[in-house]
Amino acid sequence: SREALGLAGAQSDPLSIWVEEWKLYHGGPLSPWRLSAGTNEFSLELELEPMRKPV
Predict the structure, then answer these.
(1) What are the tens digits of pLDDT across the range 2-51?
(2) Most exposed among 22, 26, 39, 52, judged by the fewest C-beta atoms under 10 Å?
(3) DSSP string of 1-55?
């Protein structure tokens, strides 16, 4: 996918990364990570929280 066609991209504040219908978003240190993905047949949304501090 290409950023020039609007199919993929990223920004740093807030952190957001996407490729077509797949998106990863993080709003800040107190926010969970959010992952969403989809096709014509299904969609999935996950909220991810770390169990430990990063190493």
Answers:
(1) 666 778 999 998 999 999 999 999 998 888 999 999 999 999 999 999 88
(2) 52
(3) --GGGTSEEEEETTEEEEETTEEEEE--TTSPEEEEEE-SS-EEEEEE--SS---
**Residues in a beta bridge with 33:** 26, 48
How far are the Cα atoms of 6, 12, 16, 33 from residue 3, in angstroms, in the given order? 5, 15, 13, 22
Residues paired with 36 in a beta bridge: 23, 45
**What is the pTM for the complete model shown?**
0.75
